[in-house]
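Training component of the fellowship. As part of building independent skills, the fellow (R.M.) carried out the full modelling exercise for a liganded target. The chosen ligand was MTE. The inputs are recorded below so that the supervisory panel can assess the work.
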Amino acid sequence: MPVYHPPKIASSEITSKSLYLGRRDFIAASGGALAAAAFSSSAFAAPLKAAPSAYKVDDKLTSKEDVTSYNNFYEFGTGKEDPSRNAGSLKTRPWTIEIGGLVAKPQVIDIETIMKDITMEERVYRMRCVEAWSMVIPWIGFPLSALLDKVEPLGSAKYVAFETLVRPEEMQGQAGIFQALEWPYVEGLRLDEARHPLTILATGLYGETLPNQNGAPIRLVVPWKYGFKGIKSIVKITLTEEQPPSTWNVLQPSEYGFYANVNPAVDHPRWSQATERRIGEAEGLFGGARLDTLPFNGYADEVASLYDGMDLTKFY
Ligand code: MTE
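Fellow's submitted model of the complex:
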């Protein structure tokens, strides 16, 4: 499996014409009603402009079909196909993110302001789920640090906490008697992890705005960590001094750590993390041809130093 190389600026092979068709042009061309629908239903994704990738793995892309139909988004059900089936009910406009806590300039930022003010770029990253499957996804997004700069974190801020929307009327997994998780879904990063250039907030994939099932309108992507750190449909970001809660860690701390760095040497108590199944790729007879999982998901050169001196079997 090809390993990740530090950023090499190359024109992306997968950049389609639609990437260069601005969202504004699309809105102007399609009229208000369709444009409104485009942002409220996973059935309509709008073209999203982005600069070519500065960060791109060589691996073959997972098909758009698989990326958008094999999902984990428990707010819409626990089955892999539930999110694509049920997430159309999520209204993604208007949408604001409240950013506060230990910052000099707390604010409520509208998604439209973010899309207008910050340059979007394409990032082709591997995603490794803790369940031992993986994908290669052409995200569109921007470094989380660009948003953090706007609110000016104080010197006392050590962590960044994230929250997903709670809206049972639109998220059927949050309604009813059986609730798979405690809501809101929450996640957190250390501030240096959050500021790392590989850490992005994604607003699109495959040249279009994010489908709802993938976490529209904005979700976290941290490519060297297990996929559950990539919290979807974010409405709140809080800078804190203490380590914030992380949904899966709170649910089962012996199985899911706060750090959740991809690590083939530390198995999940119930399965090995040494190999992974690449979604959409034939596994061969007897489940062979699984890929070896790489330390930090192949991003060790960039991020291993963040954990110097830490025992990664303890801080898993
Ligand atoms: N975010 C929220 N709010 N709810 C979830 O259930 N699932 C996580 C993560 N973010 C989840 C979430 C898990 S377990 C994974 S593997 C990834 O989203 C899946 O992202 P994808 O469906 O875009 O591939």
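The panel noted the following from the submitted structure. Residues 47-307 form a domain with the Sulfite Oxidase; Chain A, domain 2 fold (CATH 3.90.420.10). Confidence is low (pLDDT under 50) at residues 1-43.
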